[in-house]
Amino acid sequence: MLARIVRRGLHAVLLVAITLTVTFFVLRLAPGDPSGRYLADAADPADIARVERSLGLDDPLPVQFVRWASSFLTGDFGTSLDHHRPVRDMLAEAIPRTLLLASLALVLQIGLGVWVGAMAARHRHGALDALLSVLVTALFALPAFYLAYLLIGWFALDHAWFPTAGIGTPGLDRGEPGWLFDRIRHLVLPVCVLGIASAASFARFTRGSLIDALAQDYARTARAKGLTEAGVLWRHAFRDALPTLLTIAGLSTPFLIGGAVVVETVFAWPGMGALLIDAIGARDYPVVLAINFACACAVVAGSFFADVAVAWADPRARGDDAEDAT
Fold first, then answer.
1. Which residue ranges in the chain fall short of pLDDT 70?
2. SS (HEC) of the chain
3. Residue-wise pLDDT tens digits, 242-251
4. Which three-class secondary structure string do you get for 32-61?
5. Is 258 exposed, middle or buried (0-12, 13-18, 19+ CB in 10 A)?
6. What is the pTM of this model?
7. How far apart are alpha carbons 321 and 102 in whole angstroms?
8. At a CB cut-off of 8 Å and minimum separation 6, what does 305 contact?
9. What pLDDT does 267 receive?
10. Domain boundaries, the chain
11. Looking at residue 47, what is its pLDDT?
12. pLDDT at 56
């Protein structure tokens, strides 16, 4: 088990390094540069060269990469070319907000997806299964931004139950009466959009995995011993399907992070997604690379912990360690 964790950890580090390297060169080869933010379209070439020299953009790409990688390894993400602030400080503000949104959405995805999938599997090929399948397919095909506007129109504009945007009401500071409730109200719609959109696909995988497990011999034996269908489902089939569900939950991290970009933009949520959109438009290379690093770490960490969780839940997945030891 320890050898498996070390091996997966080394793979994760290598994957993050490759991702950052590719992103660095793709960004630098894309049309445009940050100097356009400081100069007019018909600027003098000497002024353009001066700005590029001050930003460190006049050196060859390999030199820029070595300089950037050296500072990056020491934890120095540089200074934002657009906001003129340390990128580390900007990430310290944005990352917790995105992680809060994505974590709550992951809990909603797993809880709702498992419940819907289990109900469909328990009543497989029946009316409830057909109804749930139609609803899940409709939610799966519905774009996240469209679902966001539907919920905003119904719950925010028509009934004013929840706010339409932001992380909190301006002027309401931490510790004041109603501050926590206000934060929760601002979280509800973004979390629901991100979690429900992901729960639809998770429910489909849950249904398929449970139906396969319910068709196994041990499930028929449990029914023959008098165990109810619900007992067979939760005590036996769910345990057999758990490794698959853990893998899917871990691999859903990229979709949650990617969906957070859309959701944060729609709801004006000040997280990594909104920061990334602004940085791409401004050619703010240090911010884009730092956010890409954070997203890559989150995606790789989700896959890594899912792999470890599968090995913990299913001893058969640890067979490769025994083979390596021999």
1. 1-2, 4-5, 30-58, 310-326
2. CHHHHHHHHHHHHHHHHHHHHHHHHHHHHCCCCHHHHCCCCCCCHHHHHHHHHHHCCCCCHHHHHHHHHHHHHCCCCCECCCCCCEHHHHHHHHHHHHHHHHHHHHHHHHHHHHHHHHHHHHCCCCHHHHHHHHHHHHHHHCCHHHHHHHHHHHHHHHCCCCCCCCCCCCCCCCCCCCHHHHHHHHHHHHHHHHHHHHHHHHHHHHHHHHHHHHCCHHHHHHHHCCCCHHHHHHHHHHHHHHHHHHHHHHHCHHHHHHHHHHHHHHCCCCCHHHHHHHHHHCCCHHHHHHHHHHHHHHHHHHHHHHHHHHHHHCHHHHHHHHHHHC
3. 877 887 887 7
4. CCHHHHCCCCCCCHHHHHHHHHHHCCCCCH
5. middle
6. 0.77
7. 32
8. 250
9. 86
10. 2-73, 88-325
11. 60
12. 64
Question: What tokens appear for 109 in the block?
Answer: 């995805």
Give the tokens for residue 54: 């001050």
pLDDT value for 314: 62
pLDDT at 42: 52
Residue type for position 21: T
What is the domain class of 88-325 according to CATH?
mainly alpha
